[in-house]
Please model this.
Amino acid sequence: MTSLDIISQVKERMTNLTDPELAQSDLSLTTCDREPIHISNAIQSHGVLLTFTEADLVILQISQNSAAFLGKEPIALLGQPLSILMQPEQISTIRDCLNAEFENVNPLRLMLSVGGQPQAFEGVVHRTDRVIILELERSIEQQAVSFFDFYKFVKAPLDHLQNTQNLTEVAQQAVTVIRNITGFDRVMLYRFHKDGSGHVIAENKSTDSGSFLGLHYPANDIPQQAKELYRLSLLRIIPDALSDQVYLEPELNPITSAPLDLSLSVLRSVSPLHTEYLENMGVRASMSISLLHDHQLWGLLACHHRSPKRLSYETRTICEFLGQVISFEVTSKANNEDLDSKIKLQAVQARFVNTIANCQTLGDGFHQNQRDLMDLLGAASVIFCEGSKVSTFGNTPPAATIAGLIEWVNQRIGEDAIYSTNTLVTDYPQFAPYKDVASGLLALRIARVQQTYLLWFRPEVIQTIDWAGEPHKTAGTDGTDVDRQLKPRKSFELWKETIQLTALPWKAYEIDAALELRSRIIGIVLQKADELALLNKELERSNIELDSFAYIASHDLKEPLRGIHNYSTFLIEDYGQQLGADGTRKLDTLMRLTRRMEDLIDSLLHYSQFGRAELLFEAIDLGEVVQSVLDVIEISRPAAADFRIPRPLPIFQCDRTQVIELFTNLISNAIEYNDRPAKWVEIGYILPTEIDPQLPETLQVDPAQTIFFVRDNGIGIRTKHLETIFKIFKRLHPAYKYGGGAGAGAGLTIAKKIVERHGGNIAVTSTLGAGSTFYFTLGQRP
Model:
């Protein structure tokens, strides 16, 4: 289909088509951010807009005021080539523009014949929606600005801007420079905050105008789609906000059958909402210069005038150029505002990281340098969570509340492993009782699997904000609660609001510092992991040497002991009569000592190899395990004791072989160290829900752990020896009493090691002459 075919179809449909989606009456309080201002199908009345095909320059759409500017009605121009308006040399200029960067060719200076008289125009051309848009404004009587003129205009303003020292100075200089160039009644520098609201940080105005300096404006004063257009187009001018809108004909783009995208249009019409907003402020003409930082809207230079005001394209170009310079200066100064704090923070971080690098654990590092941990982010208190273990520093919420907080944070924390808010009490109402210590939160997840977190808290800070009118009543209504229509604010008078339940906001560099700390901590952990790997390698080598030593101890050292034992036996047999009773007794002692030495070597060998084997956890019936141990004992020691098992022992996740040895050692000791004629040994357990007042204080037990015990009526242990009985080769009695051997070996030491390898603890209570009870746990493996 050719361009002429498209135009022919369009002319047939030119009967005031209306898109119901664009109806202004549909703009309710909840749809302000969806007002289609970029496809308004209208322009401002101080210029004319037309679109044409790129291939053959055929006019597709044109504004209804074409007769006033170009001397021809829209119906006479649609479907015609550009040559109906322009001379061949101007057509050539347009074609050349289409092959170049539009920023380098705009504005175009065109001389058109209007009613037989030459008329000078400034044109702006750009490409959108598969068509070319040409916007024309009558030239203001002003000589074209050369490079040297431009340099003269901007040199002094640039010097003033670059000689400023801080954000306040550069902002004030910016509004002064722009007002001097443009002559607007008022120029303000408006800075956006993270929540979308704004704040006037500088102002230059005529003496008879009221001041807006220091006032805040709510986020919905500038809808989100308007902010996006400010980001795309750096300068927006409205010469007369009360002038009528001029619509395009036809309404839809013939190529796309959709409204024409006017996002980059200089002449794009003004939203009726914005028109009323300006009227309520007493403003007739306005201009906005966008200030960007990292391609995002940082602020605006807002220019207001009480009467209609047009600026030449040259002046607007100078303002746009200065706006880019001002963008750089204000964002640079804003970043440098916190430079002293950043330098101090870096020093604190370096000192703090050095501390934790020299500690065994992260918790130790945090405890040693609590002040730096809080100063690092300007917090009043900190909590360190490592699994279920919670360490608090400063005045914090109760530790019992932290598990719920972390679960809530985990639902909001991003891939950056960080979450911050200065309205914690509002966001997480469960913390309302702790607003004095925790109205602000910065949560840092160090390790997901180990559930390791750092939580910094800030207290409530009550603030007073000066608003331009009441921020929560920016919309008026028709007096009913149904079908409320959006109305711009009418009052811009000073309105003070007291803000509660908020903390000082976390600054960007503080969030960066927290992430840097996480990286440093992970680096330290990885370094320690490397050191541990080297240590494990060295330990593996040492274990190999220990195996060699154990072999020597079990073979080479025991060989001479056997020789001594055998020769002593021969002496007693062959020369017993000659040696007499005293000599025989001495040889018996020598033989007993050699057996004792062999027992010690066997115990040492067994203990050195004991912890090397991997544990095999499986569901074990402890009742069967204990019964098998008792069967072995009764075979070797018939009627050794009365064994009592008050209730069946449970099934438990553990290593069968090692648990058999654990019960064997404890039950054998209970029998051996008992001089009563009627010996008894009780084997049982205590559930987490049960209470036993006799439990020793040294037994470290989690609430969910089952506690096992082996109790006897033996000789008991003195209180001063309760902590030493688990040390290897520690003897509490003379060698000739209670059978020697096991009591002086590694039996209880091995028992302790078995319990610890299962993740449990062991302790003993005893009454001398009445008996002992060994309590132990086997971790949390039900």
Observations:
- The chain is about 40% helix and 20% strand.
- Confidence is low (pLDDT under 50) at residues 1-31, 474-486, 738-745.
- The radius of gyration is 45 Å.
- The longest helix spans residues 558-610.
